[in-house]
Input
Amino acid sequence: MEGAEPVNKKLGAALSGGAVLVLALSACSSGGDDGNKELDAWAKQVCDALPAQDAKVDAANDAIKKAATDDNAPANVQKTDSKAFQDMSDAYKALGQAVQQAGPPPGVDGGQKKQQDAVTALNGLSTSYAGLKKQVDGLDTKDQAKFADGLQDIATRLGKLSQSGNAALKNLEQGDVKSAMAQQPSCQKVASSASRATTS
Output
């Protein structure tokens, strides 16, 4: 699979930023809030939804990277990538639902807009990954050159996707919200797995 292998690796490289989108919501730092119990309860609800979905995104990333580095047949790459994109789509949809159900962060200026922007961004990511699944499902695995071209296009889209959505998520977790999230064990767990992933 000489023609497609570099593209497979490019796909794997493009994915390395994929998990950052989940972690942007939980970029937890040390520091305390002013004891706002309502905000703490909100942060717990959002943070508690993160570890399972973060693990799902990480597993999907790992599967695509493994498929990209192995001397894999196009049909196997297609099957692996298709499942991975579906899992990512499901994960971001679940995160969007978690932020939606939590409601606006209490006592935060413009909290409702920030919350809705984050929900829109997460749902948009879910839709985009579902689109990538459909795209990879439609690739011709019998024609190696066409398959490589198709993966190249997906890698390009994936690279752009990894950069999108961060602004609204970072906008949500500012100030007191960030402090409240930083104190949640579930957010700390996700943050520590993120730092391990970036240093490994």
Remarks:
- The mean pLDDT is 81.
- Residues 21 and 164 are 8 Å apart (CA to CA).
